[in-house]
Specification:
By secondary structure, this protein is of the alpha+beta class. It has 2 domains: 161 residues, Efflux pump adaptor protein, beta barrel domain (Elongation Factor Tu (Ef-tu), domain 3); 115 residues. It is built from 4 helices and 12 strands, in the order H-E-E-E-E-H-H-H-E-E-E-E-E-E-E-E. It has a 6-stranded antiparallel β-barrel with strand order 1-8-11-10-9-12. Strands 5-4-2-7 form a 4-stranded antiparallel sheet, with no helix packed on it.
Length: 333
């Protein structure tokens, strides 16, 4: 009788544990993560000043370091001078167009006069009042006037092509303005500011160091948004849905649970993204339970219990609760 009772209690406990594990899947294969910015200079140069220290907390927009701006100021002044020269050249070309238009107008007047004179001499020749030579001279003058007008029109077209578009739409002016904007942008890039609120890490930068464009110098760990990368067994993922609530226990603070929510469930097991994914089409295949990454956002980061990227955690998801949309809608790999 006692043995039967023990078996019943044990069986009931096992069943209850199994039901609880099914409805509240958990894993301790989980790690804290956050947005990590690799801070790099956008221009090359020598460091003038460094305004932060390693492990210092900073706010978004706070100045981190500056690069010697002398050469970039010179480049900006040069670009501004070229813009002024471009505008002067456009003004001169505009004046050439006006002069060419005036020359065309003058040639039209000369041509109109030659046409009138030639017509008058033709009528006088037909009546015998002038010689044929006089008419030939008038015809020659008319042809010369037409040629001069054609030449003036060609010069006008050339002047217009040289000028291009007028005013602010002129190509040379636009190119020079773009060069000024680029030089001003490069000058602005000599001042590097924090992209987010966070903490500086791996900083060894010092005044006088020469940095190269695009090469990371140190790390900024953003502390406004944290999440847990939890790797659940494939047998426990079936009930997990986006938006389900979760309880997070971080090993650093065992007595301080955090609230979480499922941001997304990966579309593939973690091994699918490994450098050498497993090849199971062999005779030596052994079935191994795979892990599926699940991202759980932390809903209540606590400044009194700061989270650290890479630290261990345990996540339990309540699959019986009604899912709610995560705070962030961005997609993650």
């Amino acid at each position: 009788m006692f043995s039967a009772l023990v078996l019943i209690v044990l069986g009931g406990g096992i069943y209850a544990y199994w039901r609880h594990s099914e409805r509240y899947p958990s894993t301790d294969d989980a790690y804290v993560n956050a947005h990590v910015v690799q801070v790099a200079a956008q221009v090359s140069g020598s460091i003038n000043d460094v305004y932060v220290n390693n492990q210092q907390s900073v706010h978004s927009g706070e100045l981190l370091f500056t690069i010697d701006p002398a050469s970039f100021r010179i480049a900006l002044a040069r670009a501004q001078a070229r813009l002024a020269l471009a505008r002067q050249a456009v003004s001169a070309d505009s004046a050439m167009v006006v002069a060419a238009q005036a020359a065309v107008a003058d040639r039209r007047v000369v041509l109109d006069n030659a046409e009138v004179t030639t017509g008058r001499i033709r009528r006088l020749r037909d009546r015998g009042f002038v010689s044929a030579q006089a008419y030939d001279n008038a015809e020659t003058t008319l042809k010369g006037a037409k040629a001069q007008l054609t030449l003036a029109l060609a010069k006008l077209r050339q002047a217009r092509m040289t000028l291009g578009n007028t005013g602010g739409r002129n190509e040379r002016v636009r190119e020079a303005r773009a060069a000024v904007a680029e030089a001003r942008l490069f000058l602005g890039d000599t001042r590097v500011s924090a992209a987010c609120d966070g903490r500086i890490a791996k900083l060894s930068l010092r005044p006088g160091d020469v940095v190269q464009e695009g090469i990371p110098l140190f790390t900024l760990v953003c502390d406004r948004e944290f999440w847990i990368d939890a790797n659940f067994k494939e047998t426990g993922v079936g009930r997990i849905r986006r938006g389900q609530p979760a309880t997070i226990s971080v090993d650093m603070y065992p007595g301080h649970p955090f609230r979480g929510r499922v941001a997304h469930v990966s579309g593939a097991a973690g091994t699918a993204f490994s450098l050498l994914p497993p090849e199971n089409a062999t005779g030596n295949w052994v079935k191994v339970t795979q892990r599926v990454p699940v991202r759980v956002e932390v809903l209540n980061p606590d400044p009194a219990h700061p989270l650290r990227v890479g630290t261990s955690a345990e996540v339990t998801i309540n699959t019986t609760a009604t899912p709610r949309p995560p705070r962030t809608t961005e997609s993650h790999p």
